[in-house]
Design a protein that fits this description.
It is a single chain. The protein is α+β, with helices and mostly antiparallel strands. It has one domain. Strands 1-4-2-3 form a 4-stranded antiparallel β-sheet. It is globular, with a radius of gyration of 17 Å. It starts with a helix and ends in a 22-residue tail after the last strand. The relative contact order is 0.22. The C terminus is likely disordered.
């Protein structure tokens, strides 16, 4: 993910199953966008459901998500459930 954020994009070989699996998970959480690169070089943006089921026929290009993504997940405290009330 650091490489994608620093370089802007990262090509992924068609047969790189492990990277594709990880990238599809990051796509679901909104950290990346995935474009499937066709034989003619044209890119097609994949939806999360497509990325999870994608095969090894075509290479991908990973990019940083265009919308702002917060890397911290807030933990709500409700009625002292997670934190003791002082």
């Amino acid at each position: 993910m650091d490489t994608v954020y620093e370089a802007g994009t990262l090509p992924v070989a068609a047969g790189d199953r492990e990277t594709k699996l990880l990238a599809s998970r990051l796509l679901v959480y909104g950290f990346l966008t995935i474009d499937e690169v066709g034989e003619d070089g044209a890119a097609r943006r994949l939806r999360p459901s497509e990325a999870v089921r994608a095969g090894r026929e075509r290479p991908w290009r990973l990019s940083r998500a265009s919308r702002g993504v917060s890397l911290s997940v807030p933990i709500p405290a409700r009625d002292g459930f997670l934190f003791e009330m002082a």
